[in-house]
Write a structure and sequence with these properties.
two-stranded antiparallel ribbon; 9 strands; 6 helices; alpha+beta
Length: 262
Amino acid sequence: MSGPRERTPAFTLIELLVVISIVAILIGLLFPAISKARGAARAGVCLSNQRQIGMALVMYMDENREWTPRECGSSEAFGKPLNPGWAFVLRPYCDPRTRTDRTDHGVADRYRDAAYYRDPARPKDLHNIHYVNNGLFFTKPGTITEGRGKPPTRFGKYPRPAQVMYLSCFADDPGGVQANAWYGNNNDERTIAIYYDTQYSSQVVGGPQWESNSLRRQRIAPRRHGSTTNAVYLDGHASPVRDIAILDIASWDDGDYPTRAK
């Protein structure tokens, strides 16, 4: 005859509840660290993309007699060619498949394949370009001509290029007001690129996010990565920037003041 069966050890209900509680506590402790790591990774990808754009800017200047693309599209006098959009003219230096003698870059992708123009920390929407550049027209320190963009300018005109912002992270677009306008009417790559700049002080230092006039909305995201954002400077280098600095209009003042404003 067989002896009495041995009982298989098992967790009691209380023991199971204790284990589940411990696991939940550990997850609660780890989640902020994981979230912070993801945020740091996104910020790193964004900074890498901006460094690539900064290198493209330097190469563009080397090949174009030190001219830097600034305000995009509208500030030239009547009858002259439109100012080139930075995203349009710099793209061939990031992607050799593209070309600027075609208004669609020869790829007609509306920047969908331009991963180097995207910030993974920005909420997904219709925008395929996630950065805007400095098109502000200063006439003296602290004073800009609102709505008049700075035309292409030679690098030698900037007295402190390593300290002045050239490009930074694009703000959110609540309601898709900007995206619907900028990507509507089957706009091609050259046309889309002209919108990603700044011409008004409100676009840099705190325009209303829900402003129906997309020209007046804030276009800079000062806290895209926590309390910082990333920025490219006029000399082409890129680095993280504290929100207090990016929101200081002096950080965007290129120091090139025309002797006679039109």
